[in-house]
Amino acid sequence: MAIFSVYVVNKAGGLIYQLDHYAPRADTEKTFSFPLDLVLRPHDERVVVAFGQRDGIRVGHAVLAINGAEVNGRLTADGKDVLEFLGNPANYPVSIRFGRHRLSSNEKLMLASMFHSLFAIGSQLSPEIGSSGIEMLETDTFKLHCFQTLTGIKFVVLADPRQAGIDALLRKIYEIYSDFALKNPFYSLEMPIRCELFDQNLKLALEVAEKAGPFGPGS
């Protein structure tokens, strides 16, 4: 069980804090001969698998490295187009590493804003008046948990579906935010959180949650 990441979103939908706590690695590296038995397509400035799955390589996985050198979006380490390089028989055999791409800072900002909008839509679609909005989204590989304060700050935790005690963790994060961000005389409301004590106590809370589950009295 694990806690993957934490996001703090202000009431306007801006990302003011993000921490990647644990990133499961599902990279797969294989040596291929020509022709490549996977269909690759450009997508969002990356080259991804569009068709064909084998040996842990799945549709949607991105090309992360070629012959041990990290790729830069759609370009190889030496600036060549990835699709053109892989389409040339002279470059084979070739070693390719596939896996989930790492989100950039801009992508994280965009996703936080999108979730803020989905949260508002969820509140409006609810048949009950005064709906709290989206509190949890579940997939087969992770759960997204959200706690919104009365002032509109959202605390979002992405965790393993089997991880227990997330509701208590969200409230613990709110407590840490109150103690080490709001009480910091140098912190401005709605602005990015840059506080070493906040970082330290948040990481400690995540470790405690992973090992012990729910927080006990006085934790």
Automatic annotation (TrEMBL):
CDD domains in UniProt: TRAPPC4_synbindin
Subcellular location field: Endoplasmic reticulum; Golgi apparatus, cis-Golgi network; Golgi apparatus membrane; Postsynaptic cell membrane
Principal location: endoplasmic reticulum
GO BP term (any one): endoplasmic reticulum to Golgi vesicle-mediated transport
Gene3D superfamilies: 2.30.42.40, 3.30.450.70
Assembly description: Part of the multisubunit transport protein particle (TRAPP) complex. Component of the multisubunit TRAPP (transport protein particle) complex, which includes at least TRAPPC2, TRAPPC2L, TRAPPC3, TRAPPC3L, TRAPPC4, TRAPPC5, TRAPPC8, TRAPPC9, TRAPPC10, TRAPPC11 and TRAPPC12. Interacts with SDC2.
Function: Core component of the TRAPP complexes which has a function of guanine nucleotide exchange factor activity for Rab1 GTPase. Plays a role in vesicular transport from endoplasmic reticulum to Golgi and autophagy. May play a role in dendrite postsynaptic membrane trafficking.
Alphabetical list of PANTHER family matching this protein: TRAFFICKING PROTEIN PARTICLE COMPLEX SUBUNIT (PTHR23249), TRAFFICKING PROTEIN PARTICLE COMPLEX SUBUNIT 4 (PTHR23249:SF15)
Protein name according to UniProt: Trafficking protein particle complex subunit
Species name: Nyctiprogne leucopyga
Gene that specifies this protein: Trappc4
